[in-house]
Structures are given as structure tokens and as C-alpha cells.
């Protein structure tokens, strides 16, 4: 039997993709829309106060294209908290004007492929900062789910730890050449959602996503073993930009 990589888990993640029901939004009267905006504002305020208290983090982005209109990416200590905030949002007047497009449940994950291995990693503040990250407020987000292949001759899970580690080293080297340009958050979702990982990238230049992902396609881990779901790309929303997006 092959050795499973050891993983460290941090905050749980919910990527909640929504579309606007523009017909209903347009049909609402000014007062209804004002109430809806107030309740949206209250949710955004609540999420930023959780982030200020370092009990979680939330990123809000519009989505370009027809897959969704916007995404809330939430990180929280427990699945119960994620569930509670999702339900709280669903009860708002604003949510009445949204349609669920897609969601993804996972947990922030670090693996031991490239870890140095001495001491209790959770006692290391740098490790904790990666397990409980405050999400960047970069101009753009890119999210997609992925698997590692389990085909006859290309089965990631049948490879030895040493082979996997060598490939992950090469993967990490490409990744590191984008340091300062792209921030990645890998969330594990085996047993939690339909794919094995969620990949969330943040950057101030969306072309860095294209170049990084393209470069990785030539690297063995992705070239041989990567299987990818749908890509979602979008632009940062703050309260003001969100209101502008909703203004008729
Ligand atoms: O965490 C680390 O920095 C150590 C090195 C590292 C690991 C272990 C690393 C670095 N990644 C790791 C694990 Mn990654 N990553 C992806 C994708 O589109 C594709 O082809 C793949 C999607 C991107 C774009 C990306 C970027 N990485 C993983 C895992 C878990 C694998 C497992 O356990 O089997 C997946 C699924 C995955 C996928 N990776 C980096 C990046 C970048 C930019 C880095 C450098 C990070 C940095 O140094 O800050």
C-alpha cells in the first residue's frame, strides 16, 4: 500500500456562487430594493467584523461570464459556522433576488510533500497563517476544482511517496516563480465535495492566472495527472462596487 501524504487542515471553505434574478430585481419597487440592499450591507458588515476578529475571512468577487454573477468565498473554523452564515444570507430579502449557481465545500490544506518536518507545525505562526489565511483583496479571483487522475497507467494514488514528492517539488518551483504575482489557496475536498481539491488564485492581473495555469499544464503533475472542472474568474467587489453593479 502506498503512503498517503500527511495533510494539515485549517479553516473550512465555502465558495458560494450566485446569479442575480435581474427580472425580479427590476420588478421590485424602490423600497423593496432599499431593504434588500440594507440586508446585503448588514451581511457584508458582519463578515468583515468576523474577519477583523480573525475568526474567519470572506472574499467577495463578481464573476465574468454566464456561470454566475458573483461569489462569496467564506473561510470559517467549522462547517457549522459556514452553514449558519449561508442560511442567514438565504433568509435575507436580498437573497430572494439571487439564484444559486454553484457551490464548493472544502478545507484549507497543506501537505507534507515539501514540509521540513521538525516540530509541531501548528506551533509555527507561519504555518498557522497559511491554514487560517485572511483572503487577499486582489483585483481578481480564479477558482476551479480539480482531481489527480486514477487511470490504469496514470494513477497518482498508486505512485510512491518519493515519486509524488519529486513531482510536487517541480510543481512548487513553477508556483514559486509567481510569488508576489499570484496567491494560491489550496483547499482539500476529498469526502467533502465532488472534486478532490479546490484551487483559488488571487492576482491583480488576470493574465498571471493564464500564464501560471498554462505553464503548469506542461509540468508532469498537471500534464499527466491533472483533471479540471469549470473555471470561474472575477473582479473584486467592495460594498460600493456591489451597489454599483446592482444599480438600475
Ligand atoms: O504549499 C507550498 O507552497 C508548497 C508547494 C506546493 C504544494 C504542496 C504548491 C505550490 N502547491 C502544492 C500543492 Mn499548488 N497549485 C495547484 C494549481 O492548474 C493546475 O495545473 C493546478 C492548479 C495551481 C495553479 C497551483 C499553484 N497544488 C498543490 C495541490 C495538492 C496536491 C496534492 O496534495 O497531491 C494541488 C491540487 C495544487 C494545485 N502551487 C504552489 C501553486 C503556486 C502558485 C504555488 C507556489 C506557492 C508559494 O510558494 O507561495
Topology:
Blueprint: E1 7-20, H1 22-27, H2 30-52, E2 56-63, E3 70-76, H3 79-90, E4 98-111, H4 125-131, E5 140-148, H5 161-176, E6 182-188, E7 197-203, H6 206-217, H7 220-225, E8 226-228, E9 232-236, H8 239-246
Antiparallel strand pairs: 1-3, 1-4, 2-3, 2-9, 4-6, 5-7, 5-8, 5-9, 6-7
Bound molecules: ligand 76R.
Kindly provide the name of the CATH class: Alpha Beta
Give the strand content.
Answer: 25-35%
CATH fold-type name: Alpha-Beta Plaits
Q: Provide the helix percentage.
A: 25-40%
End-to-end separation: 60 Å
Can you count the beta strands? 9
CATH architecture: 2-Layer Sandwich
Class derived from helix and strand content: alpha+beta
Number of helices: 8
Give the CATH superfamily: Apc35880, domain 1
Radius of gyration: 19 Å
Integer count of domains: 1
Overall mean pLDDT: 97
Low-confidence stretches: none
Specify the biggest β-sheet.
8 strands, antiparallel, barrel
Bound molecules: ligand 76R
- Give the quaternary arrangement of the chains: single chain
Could you spell the SSE succession in H and E letters? Answer: EHHEEHEHEHEEHHEEH
Question: Largest sheet, order of strands side by side?
Answer: 1-3-2-9-5-7-6-4
CA-based shape: globular
Family: Belongs to the ChdC family. Type 1 subfamily.
Organism: Paenibacillus lentus
EC number: 1.3.98.5
Cofactor: Fe-coproporphyrin III
